[in-house]
């Protein structure tokens, strides 16, 4: 658990902003939430829909600093590092959904059966995307990586169109990704947040998500080589604008959709990330404006740990009860809703929860503890 020998402040800030916002949107209160803090119901997007792909983009950025060491290692060592990290992150994600391993029933606490535990999820997608992107980048030349990435985007489009339910290929019930997930994992191992079995981090949609990591990786390399110049930043921003235009052009036939992780959604989110990162580099590296960045670097230096902490705390808040209410609902209803009824009270709870996680991160940062998986 040591700090990386090479830190890149704009990347730490970018990653920290992503984790900060991720915690806020994942812990909405009981009084409703403002629309920017909700996912789009289906097609389209909101600011919340930018959080997860931005984190994958940041994973790729960080890989551009770390994977150079792989060139000096043997094949077995490289595969060992990649598969070990993949397994650990995936396992943490799975255990998080199983935690606390018991559930409330009318007869008291009962063991949570494996047969009804969600297999895939956010950390699992991070693990799989990291694994696939790392293998592609290490074993293929740059053109080969981009060729495979294009195949992922266009192949995913083709599979959804030709293998989905005719007339409902891009619907929540008719998409081919859901069919594959049910076939391989079964309904009981899928996410049920929509009220029925549908996993937004399913098997098939993982492949276009890999492209977010790949794009982050090559953006990181570009920044190291020429991204800290005005010309380099302009190229990044123009590339971002170009991808957004392409995304909206593709949107006319393949809708932007986070829950399906459509290919047009990949182009949109990478384009926005390129613009945002170029702005951060301009402000922090070029203009020297670093005031306030320390808040976000607390999250940026321990991103996976603080995200996992936020999820475990939320699970515990829902698990422990005060009377017939969960602790989560009791805190909201007794403290934050009386303070400000409705959506603003919910936002205050989300901010307080985020600051609790930030405080833990600050303590770790002060002690120079950086948890790396």
Please provide a brief summary of the model.
The protein has 373 residues and is mainly α. The chain has helices at 9-26, 51-66, 75-98, 122-139, 142-163, 176-184, 206-227, 230-251, 263-286, 293-301, 303-319, 327-339, 343-366; strands at residues 102-105, 108-111, 321-322, 325-326. It folds into 2 domains: 1-38 and 289-303 and 322-362, no CATH class; 51-285, no CATH class.
List the helices and strands and how they pair.
Layout: H1 9-26, H2 51-66, H3 75-98, E1 102-105, E2 108-111, H4 122-139, H5 142-163, H6 176-184, H7 206-227, H8 230-251, H9 263-286, H10 293-301, H11 303-319, E3 321-322, E4 325-326, H12 327-339, H13 343-366
Antiparallel strand pairs: 1-2, 3-4
Report what the structure shows:
With 373 residues, this protein is mainly alpha-helical. It folds into two domains: 1-38 and 289-303 and 322-362, no CATH class; 51-285, no CATH class. The protein is 64% helix and 3% strand. The chain is built from 13 helices and four strands. The chain has helices at 9-26, 51-66, 75-98, 122-139, 142-163, 176-184, 206-227, 230-251, 263-286, 293-301, 303-319, 327-339, 343-366, and strands at 102-105, 108-111, 321-322, 325-326. The strands form two sheets. The protein has a two-stranded antiparallel ribbon with strand order 1-2. It has a two-stranded antiparallel ribbon with strand order 3-4. A hairpin with a 2-residue loop joins strand 3 and strand 4 (325-326). Helix 2 packs across helix 7. The longest helix has 24 residues, at 75-98. The radius of gyration is 21 Å and the shape is globular. The model is unreliable at 1-6 (pLDDT under 50).
